[in-house]
Amino acid sequence: MEWRDQGILLSVRRHGESAAIIEVLTPSRGRHAGVVRGGASRKLAPILQPGAQLDLAWRARLEDHIGTFAVEPMRSRASHVMTDRLALSGLNAVTALLLFCLPEREAHPPLYARTETLLDLMGERDAWPLAYLRWELALLEEMGFGLDLSACAALGGRANDLSYVSPRTGRAVSRAGAGEWADRLLPLPPCLLGHGTAPDHEIAQGFDLTGHFLHAWLAPELGSKPLPEARARFVERFKARAAL
């Protein structure tokens, strides 16, 4: 059994004296693991950094075996993020959430494309935080927990002042439709509706929104495992920047 594809390196751990086991996200094979012989060597270890784009050739005697990877670097993203602690923590949050959410060997081409685009943006300080927030919305959608921000759940299509999201249904609610229930709803930042310039405080508010549904909807479906600490660290670091 063998196949060839490209993919994003999600994790790497040492295996034996010189090999490594890597997990990658590919467009056609999904999250996939394999052994890289010599992966802990001086030649390959600098290449095998989370976020790296790799050309991959996988081979195994049987399809359900872990198999081995032959890898060639396509581009490293380490240079984009190593000098920016926020970008580095954002990259770690992306890879950790993908490992947390995605079942093995199940393809998610739209999410793969969004992830590749997001990681390529992380060298641009002002562009990627909003892209990351939208990526979390896309992750929820891909996992079957998409939010409905298209119309007011209370007043239907007549509303044009969407300002909240129901924490129970994930549907948007207008200011007029919220009424006395407003304090029980989650704020909907304008940047998620494509309005305004997406200042940091709005994006931080958006992380509270997506975080609620990651905790309340997604995690219970995955055995109520706690969300990766990497996401919490990233959000905390981003909020510290937003407060400046």
UniProtKB/TrEMBL annotation:
Ranges that cross the membrane: none
The keyword Cell wall biogenesis/degradation is assigned to this record: no
Annotated DNA replication/recombination mediator RecO N-terminal domain residues: 1-72
Keywords assigned: DNA damage, DNA recombination, DNA repair
Domain of life the protein comes from: Bacteria
UniProt key word Hydrolase: no
Family: Belongs to the RecO family.
NCBIfam families: reco
Free-text function comment from the UniProt entry: Involved in DNA repair and RecF pathway recombination.
Name this protein carries in UniProt: DNA repair protein RecO
Species name: Roseovarius aquimarinus
